[in-house]
Design brief:
mainly beta
C-alpha cells in the first residue's frame, strides 16, 4: 500500500480547509529507489545508466478508479522506464513526484518484490494496474 507524503497531506489540507492554492500537476513522475523513502524523502533514487522517471499524465484515461468507495487508483497503461545502460542496483521501492527530477514527493511504497536491474536488462515496467495509489478508506 502506498503512503502519502507530508507535502501532499499539508497541501491538500491547506487547500480544503484554509483556501490555500493547490494546482494539480499535469503529469506525475514515477521513480525507482534502492532504499525505503519516508513521508519527507524519496529514498535512494536510482541514478545514471540511462535511468529517468516515467511520466504519467494526470488525465481521466491514465488512471482507473476510484471505484466503489475504495479510495484507490491504478495505472491504466503500462509504465515503462528506459533500458538500463548500467546497473541500477537492487530496486526496492517506487515513488511518485510532481517533476521529472527533484520536485515534491507525493506518494511512496515498497515494490511487491525487490528487483536487481543490470545493464542490458529489459526496460523495467509496471504492467497495467500494478501501480496502485490508495488514500486510506
Amino acid at each position: 500500500m502506498s503512503a502519502m507524503s507530508d507535502y501532499l497531506e499539508n497541501a491538500l489540507l491547506g487547500h480544503l480547509f484554509k483556501g490555500a492554492a493547490f494546482v494539480a500537476p499535469s503529469n506525475v513522475y514515477v521513480g525507482l529507489s534502492t532504499a525505503a523513502g519516508s513521508d519527507t524523502a524519496m529514498g535512494a533514487e536510482v541514478a545514471g545508466g540511462g535511468y529517468a522517471r516515467a511520466a504519467i499524465a494526470c488525465a481521466g484515461t491514465s488512471w482507473t478508479g476510484p471505484a466503489g468507495g475504495n479510495g484507490t487508483v491504478a495505472n491504466a497503461a503500462e509504465v515503462a522506464f528506459p533500458v538500463p545502460s548500467a546497473s541500477w542496483g537492487n530496486v526496492t521501492h517506487w515513488f511518485i513526484a510532481d517533476a521529472p527530477t527533484g520536485g515534491n514527493l507525493l506518494f511512496h511504497a515498497p515494490l511487491t518484490a525487490a528487483k536487481t536491474i543490470n545493464a542490458g536488462d529489459a526496460a523495467p515496467k509496471f504492467e497495467v494496474g500494478a501501480l496502485t495509489v490508495q488514500i486510506d478508506d
